[in-house]
Amino acid sequence: MNKEMTMQEIESLYESEWVLIENPKTDEELKILGGKVIYHSKDRDEVYRKVVSLRPKRSAVLYTGEIPEDTAVVL
Q1: Following CA atoms 17, 68, 45, 64 in sequence, which dihedral angle do they give, to the nearest 10 degrees?
Q2: Which of 9, 13, 41, 62 is the S-S candidate for 5 at Cβ 3.0 to 4.6 Å?
Q3: Whole-model pTM?
Q4: pLDDT tens for residues 38-71?
């Protein structure tokens, strides 16, 4: 997990998981293009606990699966 990866690589390796990316590469609209995965889990809360313990300077957490239709998303 110490190498830079594209979003395609991340999504294929960690399908339907929550992923913590350190120093994410983004475009001008802040869409994540890739980065270094430092943690991943099927359990969202586990990933957020890892964020608190690792305290990365710049990071992103994302889900690589499909969000069910009956789920509310708050941005």
Answers
A1: 20
A2: 9
A3: 0.87
A4: 999 999 999 999 999 999 999 999 999 988 788 7
Q: Find all residues with CB under 8 Å of 7, minimum gap 6, and list them.
A: 32, 33, 34
pLDDT by residue (tens digit) across 16-41? 999 999 999 999 999 999 999 999 99
Q: Is the dihedral of CA 13, 18, 24, 28 positive or negative?
A: positive
* Spatial CB neighbours of 43, under 8 Å, sequence gap ≥ 6: 18
Which DSSP helix (H) or strand (E) runs through 21?
Answer: strand 18-26
The domain limits of the chain are: 4-63
